[in-house]
Amino acid sequence: MESTDPRLLRKVHEAYSAPTWWYDFRGFFILILAHRTSLWSLVRFFERNISDKHLEIPVGSGTLLYFTLLWHGVRNRKAPRPAITAVDYSETM
Question: Nearest to residue 91, comparing CAs of 54, 59, 69?
């Protein structure tokens, strides 16, 4: 059921309008605490799932995707670069 409560909509808008540094900072801790692992473990995990045509939702600022693609390039030097489509709810991102 979709909510039309203006207060809730304002909170969601404010959360997704954060500066990119805050979005990354907050997202880093959410990922680390939720998965109980290190950033590099997450990069390696996500890298295994990069395909020739990759869709990234939500991409946020792209920082995690950037590191994932760097690691992917190191591991697959001769492979063609993947075609990437990335979207995020936030206009700021």
Answer: 59
Contact between 38 and 68 under an 8 Å Cβ cutoff? The reply is no
Extract long-range pairs of 62-68: CB within 8 Å, 24+ residues apart: 62/86, 62/93, 63/24, 64/27, 64/31, 67/39, 67/43, 68/43
How many CB atoms sit inside 10 A of residue 22's CB?
Answer: 11
Ordered per-residue pLDDT tens for the chain, 93 residues: 466 788 888 887 787 777 888 888 887 888 888 878 888 888 888 888 888 899 998 888 888 899 899 888 878 888 788 899 999 887 777
* Residue indicated by tokens 């969601």: 12
